[in-house]
Design a protein that fits this description.
alpha/beta; 7 strands; binds 5-O-phosphono-beta-D-ribofuranosylamine; globular
Length: about 190
Amino acid sequence: MKRTKLAVFASGSGSNYEAIVEACRDGRIEADVVLLVCDKPGAKVLERAKRFGTESFAFNPKDYESREAYETVLVSMLEERGIDYICLAGYMRIVGKVLLERFEQRIVNIHPSLLPSFKGAHAIQDAVDYGVKIFGVTTHFVDETLDGGRIIDQAAIVYEGSDIEELTNLIHNIEHKLYVKTINKLINKKY
Ligand code: GRF
């Protein structure tokens, strides 16, 4: 059977990218990360991609006329490489119709809250500010809305402390495991 090809899209640190690559390498995921796409040319994830030998494409959206313009470039790169699924991992950008139409039901995201609660870029802090005690992580299919789309997996954690750094680390560790589970569901078409 042909091995599944993944692209990871990220804008920041890339700990989820690294967790996915490691799972592909040690056999927990029967797939390969073939391309890393990054919309922030200085982001740390690019160093990680270099270290792991993943081809990367960094672009600045401001250099393009529109979202459609850069997504058209991305679609041809993804198709040339035979990418099966796109995993968003801290990609701080709405995905537009050019990518969504070509990769229908093949783009997934991970978000550090129990969606539909606490969408957006500050989910953990927002949940803390709200006084939440049960935190969590969600993976979901991507649509044109912020952190929208049908949920695939969730995992929860009870945290009653006040150390946001500790909480963030706990949530990241859960993310790294949950993404592996979700990608396996995609590969086996069990979602
Ligand atoms: C993660 O918390 C993810 O859920 C969110 O952005 C963060 C990315 O972290 N969408 P990293 O860059 O993978 O370390």
